[in-house]
Amino acid sequence: MVHYLEGLSVTEAAKLKKTVAALFRQTCILQEKYDPAALAPIDNEQYGICVKHRPFLEAYLEVMGCELVHDAKEHIFRITGEGVPAEAVPKSAAILILLVKMIYRDKIMGEGLMEPVTNLAEIREYGKNTGLLNGKLPDLEWNEALGQMKRHQIIEYPGALRDMDDTTPIYIYSAVNLYVSFALLHELMEQYKEEEVAPGETGEKDFYQDAFE
User: Fold this and answer.
1) Which residues, in sequence order, are CB contacts of 204 under 8 Å at separation 6+?
2) Which of 54, 102, 145, 173 could be bridged to 96 by S-S, CB 3.0 to 4.6 A?
3) Shortest CA distance to 169 belongs to which of 2, 1, 38?
4) Residue 197, SS3?
5) Is 155 helix (H, G, I), strand (E, B) or coil?
6) Which has the closest alpha carbon to 164: 101, 120, 128, 100?
7) What separation in angstroms does the CA of 14 have from each of 5, 20, 59, 124?
8) Angle, alpha carbons 174-179-181 (nearest 5°)
9) Torsion angle (degrees, nearest 10) of CA 210, 143, 147, 163
10) Cα within 13 Å of Cα(133), Cβ side
């Protein structure tokens, strides 16, 4: 593996190392990223690096206790296995992921096949209509959930969190399907509707267990 890196240019080797780091940080790499400022998709260079160096990545990740999986339909590379770092998700964040999943489903499969773009106001509306968000979540919990979803390639939004308002466009990636399947969506909705969402609640689950795997 060292010899493989030594055979690359300094620039190419650096890009490959950054791609490996990105896989461990966000668990998946998409072929297209969304530029919310321009409201247009752009090619993701790291996806091309995964394609070009796939045999090396597969061998390297296997040593690390991980497997590189390619979803040809969704155009996503992701890592699975015991070597993937576990990340706890607060219940409030898990519920927000469910709401984002519902919005994605309705936009993609609903009338008109709309772009999967939402905003904070719509997420709150879905939360109220489904009974999943009956109370107001603290700003800190919103920020942590949005940051976690962006890091794991579930959503994309322009600028910094502090600059967001209720109408700021939030693009939803198809990667949300990796964390919540359609089959589990209604089951999880009923489960969370039966439980009260209290501000500051610490109930957490591993990010890659149950629905999020």
Assistant:
1) 88, 89, 90, 91
2) 145
3) 38
4) coil
5) strand
6) 120
7) 9, 10, 18, 41
8) 80
9) 150
10) 24
CA dihedral 123, 94, 115, 177 (to 10 degrees): -160
Q: How far is CA 18 from CA 15, 22, 50, 64, 211, in A?
A: 5, 6, 11, 16, 28
Q: What are phi and psi of 171, to 5 degrees?
A: -85, 135
* SS3 assignment, position 135: coil
State the Cα–Cα distance between residues 44 and 136, nearest whole angstrom: 36
Q: Is 173 left (phi over 0), alpha (psi -120 to 50) or beta?
A: beta
pLDDT at residue 193, rounded to an integer:
58
Q: What is the Cβ-side half-sphere exposure of residue 175, based on CA atoms within 13 angstroms?
A: 26
Instruction: Give the pTM.
Output: 0.81
- CA–CA distance, 137 with 200 (Å, rounded to integer): 8
Tell me the H-state helices in 64-138.
91-109, 120-130
